[in-house]
Design the sequence.
């Protein structure tokens, strides 16, 4: 895709720090890391969100991610980490080419992912029914 920064990285038009590459995926160090070793796992095919990703790449994604996490753990001294994947602008997606973040965690203070809110259990009850019925 023209003007897609990750397609350009995959094609070698823009430099990156590659930590893993095969026919279908490339993993690079994030340019503005949340923590040391923050890595992006990027399928080479251009898709935007999780729902656009092909079945084949979706099926391979977690195994590739596990392999990369193991590599990161063997080099960097961490055992905890976050896997984050943003879909759409409201969710914080800034690069419109599907990617998954691996963020090593070294201390509790580094990043806040979300602020929990009070919940009404009765809302969840009917909501769960509605969603369960919608999932085919
Ligand atoms: P997201 O907000 O989920 O779309 O994440 C996009 C990520 O891509 C951000 O963490 C950026 O720091 C990172 N990023 C943007 N441009 C580059 C680049 N040229 N090389 C490496 N990481 C990048
Ligand atoms: Zn792209």
Sequence:
């Amino acid at each position: 895709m023209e003007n897609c920064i990750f397609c350009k990285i995959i094609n070698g038009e823009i430099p990156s720090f590659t930590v893993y590459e095969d026919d279908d995926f490339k993993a690079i160090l994030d340019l503005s890391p949340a923590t040391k070793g923050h890595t992006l796992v990027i399928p080479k095919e251009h898709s935007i969100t999780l729902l656009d990703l092909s079945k084949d790449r979706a099926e391979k994604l977690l195994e590739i991610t596990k392999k990369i996490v193991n590599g990161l753990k063997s080099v960097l001294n961490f055992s905890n980490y976050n896997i984050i994947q943003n879909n759409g602008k409201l969710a914080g997606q800034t690069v419109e080419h599907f990617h998954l973040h691996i963020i090593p965690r070294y201390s509790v203070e580094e990043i806040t992912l979300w602020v929990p809110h009070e919940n009404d259990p009765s809302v969840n009850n009917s909501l769960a029914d509605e969603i369960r019925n919608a999932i085919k």
